[in-house]
Amino acid sequence: MRIAFAGTPSTAVPSLQALFDAPAHEVVAVITRPPAPAGRGRRETRSPVAELADARGVPVLAPAKAGDAQFLVELAALEVEACAVVAYGALLPQVALDVPAHGWVNLHFSLLPA
């Protein structure tokens, strides 16, 4: 299955690695938050998820907002069948949720309120 993975912090890296290791799936892109200032020098830093994608040669999409028209065009062009989300860090608008044929699957690390 053609999958895009949306995530940002290091806690999302094991899930992305598991998808890379799964022979039944092809991770065709990673969606992450744009580089942000970090550390004492406040240097622009790519997310841990983006770094893993770079190491694997997978395209990284880092839209300022998940509803940006250019991002939606790029995501649609990838012809993803499903998207996995682990700690992405931004709300996904309905227009983005409608892109993959089989929708989005969210892995959440805590119990959500009823």
Distance between the termini: 32 Å
Our estimate of the beta-strand percent is 25-35%
- Main β-sheet, in a few words? 5 strands, parallel
- Strand arrangement within the widest β-sheet reads 5-2-1-6-7
Share of helix, binned: 25-40%
Instruction: Write down the CATH topology.
Output: Rossmann fold
User: Which runs of at least 5 residues are low in confidence (pLDDT < 50)?
Assistant: none
* Gyration radius over CA: 14 Å
Word description of this protein:
This protein is an alpha/beta fold. The protein has a single domain, classed as Rossmann fold, CATH 3.40.50.170. Helices cover 27% and strands 25% of the residues. The protein is built from four helices and seven strands. The protein starts with a strand and ends in a 7-residue tail after the last strand.
What is the topological layout?
Layout: E1 2-7, H1 13-21, E2 26-31, E3 36-38, E4 43-45, H2 48-56, E5 60-61, H3 69-77, E6 82-86, H4 94-97, E7 104-107
Parallel strand pairs: 1-2, 1-6, 2-5, 6-7
Antiparallel strand pairs: 3-4
Characteristic terms for this protein:
114 residues; alpha/beta; Rossmann fold; two-stranded antiparallel ribbon; 4 helices; 27% helix
Short description:
The protein has 114 residues and is of the alpha/beta class.
